[in-house]
Amino acid sequence: MTMENDAENISLELVHDMQGELCDALNSLAGKKNNGLLDKFVMYMSKYINMAADAYVPLRKSSKLDASKLLIRPSIEAAIQILAVQKKPDLLYRIAYSARIQDRKLVRPSAIKSGWDYDAEDNKRWCRFEQQYRAHFPNHALEQKELSLIDAATTAGVGWYYDVYRLYSRFTHAALTAATGALNYTDIDDNCHMAACVCSGLEAVATGGATAPHLDSFRRRLSALGESGGGKQHN
């Protein structure tokens, strides 16, 4: 029990420290010129991871492990998308197209019921987006095809991590195995997975000009966690 508590404390401290640096890194981007749509997308995904990790840490500290697990799956999804567009920037268009299709399925019905001319507004937004996208990326092929997360993960070179995403989906989808505690064996790996997501966000915004003075140290600490068995090593 003591060894497990030590592993939890060490890995949670890393999540806490990296989340603090990610928050500072995002704030350091204020007033800086970015390179347009791609940088904005990466920033928003990193902000999402930061928001999740900011809630995750106090839940773990108060021993609310079951609640904390609900924040891991969306963080992995954001991290995979960051890695995918970094590896293949023209996937950004497919991610945006996928989001539009999903919004039309999920948002459109309630919007129409409330009297909102959803189709007209959606078409205007999409036309503006395509104009901006063509201006930023004139050489990209605008492929109107939805992008699955497994395809994004495979393109990013982290296809194996999609299985981790699927595992944590059991918690967010209220699977019986999660509700009964049968999946609590993942406790030892939770912090390492969250730390890997935060590291992906921190690396991404640092590449975009954010200040991240301890990034190399965080990478070494995360690698050490992976080598000690606290989750798979982050690449």
List the helices and strands and how they pair.
Elements: H1 2-28, H2 37-61, H3 65-69, H4 72-87, H5 91-106, H6 108-113, H7 118-136, H8 149-156, H9 161-172, H10 176-179, H11 187-207, H12 215-227
Helix pairs in contact: 1-2, 1-11, 1-12, 2-4, 2-11, 4-8, 4-9, 4-11, 11-12
Question: Could you please describe the fold and organization of this structure?
Answer:
73% of the residues lie in helices and 0% in strands. It is an all-alpha fold. It has two domains: 2-31 and 41-88 and 149-227, no CATH class; 91-142, no CATH class. The longest helix has 27 residues, at 2-28. The two termini are 30 Å apart. The model has no long low-confidence stretch (mean pLDDT 93).
Q: How many discrete structural domains? A: 2
Global structural class: mainly alpha
Count of β-strands: 0
Average pLDDT works out at 93
Biggest sheet overview: none
Low-confidence stretches: none
User: How many helix segments?
Assistant: 12
Rounded to the nearest angstrom, the distance between the terminal CA atoms is: 30 Å
Sketch the topology as an H/E string, one letter per element.
HHHHHHHHHHHH
Strand content: under 5%
Keywords:
235 residues, mainly alpha, 12 helices
Provide a short characterization of the protein structure.
The chain is an all-alpha fold and about 240 residues long.
